[in-house]
């Protein structure tokens, strides 16, 4: 006589799923990113992770862009802000904070590219802004110029991290660099007189040296470059 099938537990006997929260959704997104990469951080994948339907997630997160911004904010908690409170030249301390910021992005593939367009607004992003603005104030940068300048500093650091992380992952990076080197070294003096003969200068410097130079250029010029008068209300999408 065949054995009777094992009855499935009723819904009342199953352990209750934890209630959905925005914090829980973001935590699940961070787990997926660490294990599978940012490209897998989608509403559908998170619904699987949390054993729910994708539609239920939209109650807490508007779309994937907002989700990626929230994930980015979580990782910004890893940025070392100790230089803000340390002694020493304010420019070097700005560079140290932005260097840590770039390192955080570089450690997590895909995060740097997402950070180019993501707009975090969480507590870790505000802490980063607060620290950088404090250093700019210490350096005597007027408030209005610091407010615009901090945006540019983060943009440069983000773009640099995105470029380097993309190259590190690309199997064709070596070939692309060789092609660029060849094009610059063989530039025609007649067609490209300003390029010809300057390949060494155009290709010189390590990524870190170039990032440091860009930041120094921005920091040195920021106090001397006035912000234009507003022509109307801010129009940022």
TrEMBL record:
Span of domain HTH tetR-type: 19-79
InterPro entries given in the database record: Homeodomain-like_sf, HTH-type_TetR-like_transc_reg, HTH_TetR, Repressor_TetR_C, Tet_transcr_reg_TetR-rel_C_sf
Native species: Streptomyces parvulus
One Pfam family per UniProt: TetR_N
Keywords: DNA-binding, Transcription, Transcription regulation
Top-level taxon in the UniProt lineage: Bacteria
PANTHER family named in the record: HTH-TYPE TRANSCRIPTIONAL REGULATOR RUTR, TRANSCRIPTIONAL REGULATORY PROTEIN
Gene3D superfamilies in alphabetical order: Tetracycline Repressor, domain 2 (1.10.357.10)
Residue ranges the UniProt entry marks as DNA-binding: 42-61
A GO biological-process term: negative regulation of DNA-templated transcription
Molecular function per GO: DNA-binding transcription factor activity; transcription cis-regulatory region binding
Coiled-coil intervals, chain numbering: none
Protein name: TetR family transcriptional regulator
């Amino acid at each position: 006589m065949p054995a009777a099938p094992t009855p499935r537990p009723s819904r009342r006997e199953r352990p209750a799923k934890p209630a959905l929260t925005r914090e829980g959704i973001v935590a699940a997104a961070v787990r997926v990113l660490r294990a599978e990469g940012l490209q897998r951080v989608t509403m559908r994948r998170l619904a699987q992770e949390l054993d729910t339907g994708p539609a239920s997630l939209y109650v807490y997160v508007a779309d994937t862009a907002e989700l990626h911004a929230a994930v980015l904010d979580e990782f910004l908690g890893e940025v070392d802000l100790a230089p803000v409170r340390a002694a020493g030249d304010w420019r070097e301390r700005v560079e140290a904070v932005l260097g840590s910021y770039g390192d955080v992005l570089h450690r997590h593939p895909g995060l740097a590219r997402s950070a180019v367009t993501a707009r975090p607004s969480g507590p870790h992003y505000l802490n980063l802004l607060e620290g950088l603005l404090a250093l700019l104030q210490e350096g005597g940068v007027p408030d209005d110029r610091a407010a615009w300048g901090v945006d540019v500093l983060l943009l440069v650091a983000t773009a640099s991290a995105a470029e380097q992380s993309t190259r590190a992952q690309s199997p064709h990076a070596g070939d692309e660099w060789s092609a660029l080197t060849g094009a610059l070294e063989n530039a025609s003096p007649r067609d490209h007189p300003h390029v010809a003969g300057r390949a060494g200068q155009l290709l010189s410097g390590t990524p870190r040296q170039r990032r440091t130079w860009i930041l120094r250029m921005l920091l040195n010029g920021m106090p001397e470059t006035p912000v234009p008068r507003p022509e109307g209300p801010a129009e940022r999408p």
